[in-house]
Amino acid sequence: MSPRSPRIAAIGGFMQYFEPIMGPDSRRDRTAHLDHTIAGLNAEAEIHNLGLLVDETDEARLVEAVRQLAPDVLLIVPTMATPPGPMLRVIGAAPDAPVIIACSHGLESISAEYAMAELCRHSANVGASMVESLMRRRGREPVTLVGFLSDDEFHARLLMAVRAAATARRLKGLRIARLGLPMSGYDHVGLDAQEAEASDMTLVDIPLEDWAERVAGVTAQQIDQLFERLPTIMPQGTEWQRTPDHDRAAGLAIALQKLSDEQNVDCGSLTCRGPFGVGLGQGAIGCLATTMMTSAGTPFSATGDLVTAVAMFIGRSLGGATLYCELDAIDRQRDAF
């Protein structure tokens, strides 16, 4: 299936008690702080900026919004000192979502004009400590990041934290397709239904009869269309001479894509050296199929290696490049495999 962007609910902490000290523009100013903190996440996540938690009306609004949204990740931005009780009640509306606390600082130097108004506005450290302390006392551990809004490095760390949290959330309920058991003796790579369930994952076992029917149903027109599209996704300069072997490999790729979409799987493995691959009537090695699936965002391994398939899913979700390939020999001179 096509991976969707993680759904992030961002909420800003605020303390109404200090509003008379901070001045009439304090909500606007602290909202701008929240906006600045999360601005760099829009390109890679579905951000829902739910605004500031100021009073009981906001608490009720935010509890309902979080419950309806069912976010993958909760991003809490204490824009100043933040009473943790109301914030934890909002956080409780998404009991399974990982929580990130972004303790972001806009003030970088303290001048002679620094007074109580500035102290209140720039008390994110206090707010982050308050929220994290109560969360840990209640048995829910957040990830807290501290940095300056002017630093690109802080925004990069926040982005990676969101990726990691969203990936961790997606592992719960991960759907893993298995097309064939590992080769005999490959006991280190297999995964059975009980092991998957122990990690809150679902093993989707594909019967050979179903797979064989899907591969046999691929048409010559579909294969031609794949080869028309192939140059647009291959590295520039790649050359090949189309052969019947390529056509059979393309048939596996087309069938695997359709199966993955219909079964709504996140990753998987195709054991092509056996009845699910070369043993089929129009069978082939599965490297083209698994590589195309991986490049499209649904990582597939070979040889029934579901452990590595999950690792590939994690790597891909964190923004890395993934390729299933054995690294056999080491070239010491070039420091390469």
Automatic annotation (TrEMBL):
SUPFAM superfamilies: FucI/AraA N-terminal and middle domains. GO terms for molecular function: intramolecular oxidoreductase activity, interconverting aldoses and ketoses. Keywords: Carbohydrate metabolism, Isomerase. The keyword Isomerase applies. One of its GO terms (biological process) is monosaccharide metabolic process. GO terms for cellular component: cytoplasm. This is Uncharacterized protein. It comes from Devosia aurantiaca. The lineage of its organism: Bacteria, Pseudomonadati, Pseudomonadota, Alphaproteobacteria, Hyphomicrobiales.
